[in-house]
Amino acid sequence: MSLRPFEAAKPVRLFWLQSGGCGGCTLSALGAENPDLVTAMDAANIEVLWHPSLSEASGRDVVDLMERLASGEESLDILCLEGSAMCGPNGTGKFHMFSGTGQPTMEWIRLLAEKAQYVVAVGSCAAFGGITAAGDNHVEARGLSYDGRKPGGLLGADFRSRAGLPVINIAGCPIHPGWLCETLHQVAAGSFGAADTDEWARPLSYTMHLVHHGCAKNEFYEYKASAEKLCDHGCMMENLGCKGTQARADCNIRSWNGSGSCLDGNYPCINCTAPEFEEPGHDFTRTPKVAGIPVGLPTDMPKAWFVALASLSKAATPTRLKENAVADHLTVPPLDKGKS
Question: The whole model's pTM is what?
Answer without folding.
Answer: 0.90
